[in-house]
Amino acid sequence: MSGIIGILGGTGQLGSGLALRFSQAGYKVVIGSRSKDNAAQAVEKLKSEHPELNFDISGTDNKTAAAEADIVVLTVHYEHLVDLLAQLKAETNGKIVVSTINPLTFAGGKAGLLPVAANSVAELVQEHLPEAKVTAAFHTVSAALLSNLGKPLDEDILVAGDDKAARQEVAGLANAIPGLQGVEAGPLRIAKYLEEMIVLIISLNRVHKAQTGFRVTGLHE
Ligand SMILES: NC(=O)c1ccc[n+]([C@@H]2O[C@H](COP(=O)([O-])OP(=O)(O)OC[C@H]3O[C@@H](n4cnc5c(N)ncnc54)[C@H](OP(=O)(O)O)[C@@H]3O)[C@@H](O)[C@H]2O)c1
User: Fold this and answer.
1) Where do the domains of the chain lie, and which CATH numbers do they carry?
2) Which residue is closest in CA terms to ligand 1's atom 40?
């Protein structure tokens, strides 16, 4: 696979799961963190847990990871996003930036959505990084499932974005992971609905005591 994927906040649950799966698919991955040491530890953990895999993976600070990457994936919480974006303008110019961020809150013990300072988190990213090709994807896939290579994945990854080529490339990233299918969902304004699906997923998971995901039907008729 060509192209370097930089995962910012890649020491966390979703970031590590994506790093593992993208590495397994043959991509070169750079994990970003606020701390180079944390990033290095996350890389060593993945390597030691998967000695069978021939990883091309490294760890560094978020800004350097964005600079080194061809595609930048954001896997931090909404509350930390704006401070992170402030460091990334030059590093992301002309690049695909993928927002995975659900503005999730558990206020009062119930899953709900934080107010977002734009129509969607992804559109907020686009406002802060006007020269980047922002897409929204990977909102509904479970980090725990991504991190468990023993459990087959079986779900769709909906991808929103205004740049069609970028959208197709990000759908291709999902397609590179066995069991996932990237499905183009439309322009970036649709990201709002992808970001909201997490509340439904959490409810489904609770009711069915399962890790659920989405499949779109009727695509190939
Ligand atoms: N978990 C899932 O199953 C899942 C699924 C779909 C989407 N998502 C989305 O993915 C994002 C991350 O979720 P997660 O569960 O992976 O969270 P997480 O495990 O808490 O990881 C988030 C990462 O953010 C970094 N971070 C913490 N505080 C920060 C700050 N003040 N500024 C910048 N970075 C900071 C940390 O990395 P360092 O300390 O190394 O900097 C941390 O590893 C969320 O927006 C979530 O909505 C998660």
Assistant:
1) 4-208 (3.40.50.720)
2) 33
